[in-house]
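During the second year of the project, the team shifted from modelling isolated chains to modelling whole assemblies. The rationale, set out in the original proposal, was that interfaces cannot be judged from single-chain predictions alone. As a representative example for this report, we include one of the complexes processed in the last quarter. Its constituent sequences, exactly as entered into the pipeline, are reproduced here:
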Amino acid sequence: MVNLGIGLLVIVGVIVLLFVLGFFGILVGMYNSLIRLKNDIKKAWANIDVLLKQRSDELPKLVSSVKGYMKHEKTVLENLTKARTSLMNAKTIEEKAKADNIISGALKSLFAVAENYPNLKANENFMQLQKRISGIENELADRREFYNDAVNTFNIRIASFPDMIIAGMMGLREQDMFKVSEEDKKDVKIEF
Amino acid sequence: MAVDRLFFYSIFGLGFGVYIFFKSFCTYREKKMIENTPTSKVRSLAMGRVEVYGNVVPDKNNVVKTPFSNQECVFCLWRIEEYKRSGKSSRWVIIKKGLKGGHFFIKDDTGIVLVDPNGARIEIPSSFQFETGIGKEPDKHIISFCEEIGLPHKGLIFNKKLKFIEQAIREDNKLYIMGYAGDNPYVEDGSAEKNEADIMIQKGNSSFYYISNKPEKEILKSYGLRLLGGLLGGGALIIVCLFYIFFYLRIL
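Output from the structure prediction step:
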């Protein structure tokens, strides 16, 4: 009778221990994966920032290579330079996203206007810069999408049960996506 | 005697139960990693942990032939199993295994990137399987491969009961890869025109390098089942084995 009591007690103890270990293990897993997600967002943003910087570095070269040909497109070039400056001064993700959208629009317009200048189109330096900048623009679009996916996963996780309990204790807050406003999506108007 | 064997199995079962119970925490970690990592476009891959999904494109210098079926592939895992009997029980035991092939490329709709599959956990179905035995003669490629690795395929009189299995990655196969995007050692730094040309997906310093022929959704589903099986199955095995051990030791 005593043996039976001890045996059952041990087995019940093991069952409880398994539950506790399982619960604790899942808890640790949740905590770690939330930390990983938070860092993934930071990394995804850093990967965008690198490209924004690379594109910014190419812009003065682009402006100097086209200004000899596009003397009548002063506004386009000024818009580009202004947008570059506002990107350099931007601190928050929102500000950077806004400046980035303006630059993308200005570049689109610049390359469209360049079609009217056959001499410019024949310039190898310009062609190389255009190819390089277009490449960066495509990469930027992919990385924005990647960033938004990472943010979306994070936001869903911290709002779902049971992760929301741990996220609440860790003080995790919903993150902003890299938004493109309808106004910013429009091309910069060029006057000929 | 029969009771002794059951006791032995219970001890073994207890150990195995504990192993699969704790192993399921690794499964949980890997599942979350797959779930939480967005799929990258090849064109914009950044260094670090990445997840890509695309078609296999062979590296011209790294196309190999599979050892048993002699088919072209970019990478192949092979194993030879032997049917062994011990007492009343019998089972297939792996007696030799290996891999063939090297790098290949993965292409999606934006670009193409080099992949070094060495060190990856590769989960793809077997593409070839052949069993030898009495009246089942192996093909000439199997015979020559056995000779190459010094494995006799014949017993004293008859052929040995062997199983030859291949898992091959071929051109145009769709693959899911979770790995580490690191520097491509075959391209000089800064010389690449495209971002992805200077990158190679590899094991790197990541603890989890995984290649599968399934899309992410299906992978997650199988991970979910494995996790549930590990936690519930492992836990149940521990409890059942403990019951028997205590019963045997007359504690219960």
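Chain A touches chain B at residues 3-4, 6-8, 10-11, 14-15, 18, 21-22, 25-26, 29, 32-33, 36-37, 40, 43, 47, 135, 138-143, 145-146, 149-150, 153, 157 (CB under 8 Å). Residues 2-66 of chain A form the longest helix (65 residues).
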